[in-house]
Amino acid sequence: MLKYNFFSIFTFMNNLFSFLNKKLIEAGCDEAGRGCLSGPVVAAAVILPKDFKHEWLNDSKQVSEAKRKLLRPIIEEKALAWGVGLVHEQEIDEINILKASFLAMHRAVDQLIVRPEFLLIDGNRFTPYYNIPHECIVKGDSKYLSIAAASILAKTYRDDFMEKLHDEFPIYNWSQNKGYPTKQHREAILAFGDCKYHRKTFTLLPR
Q: What's the whole-model pTM score?
């Protein structure tokens, strides 16, 4: 007889939790671009109505690019508040990518027009944001709707940013690889060198 825990049942049904604390104003937070070789790390914070549902909403990695683009305006319209924060490559090199990811989330929360009472953070670590309590949730973007919504905004805003950078440096084909360490991206770095948007403290080429 097959046995499922509580989370696996909901994952199997492609159904995410609406909240962790029903009585608190929760903001889900997630980032995109942490493993990239170039461009900023981008984070989003989203406060959804407790009754918000959408059949497509899930971890951005599980949603097609076309559906992500359609979901973004829906999230922005229906959310009680949302914000996006960026930390650019120069700052990433100065403070390291982990701290930069947390800073991007802080900047996203800064943009919220509604002050959250609790933060749901995707991942296992976080630097506290002032006096707002938080919960770190591993793979939270596939468990909670607000974190999934944040993952959609973070991913789409970063993709748009990288497509603009592509116009300036088309040799790296960022419109396709979005700055991730693909074979094509690294071959371009090998052939043409790096540029001002690359993260200098990252391993741009295999040693």
A: 0.92
CB 150 within 8 A of CB 28: yes
* Residues 6+ away with beta carbon under 8 Å from 166: 172, 173, 174, 175
123: closest CA among 144, 108, 96, 109?
144
CA distance from start to end of the chain? 49
Residue whose structure tokens are 């790296």: 172
Beta carbons of 42 and 84 less than 8 angstroms apart: yes
Does 88 map to a domain? yes
Q: Which of 1-5, 52-56, 134-138, 193-197 shows the lowest mean pLDDT across its residues?
A: 1-5
What CATH number corresponds to the domain at position 105?
3.30.420.10
100 inside domain: yes
Domain hosting 26: range is 17-159
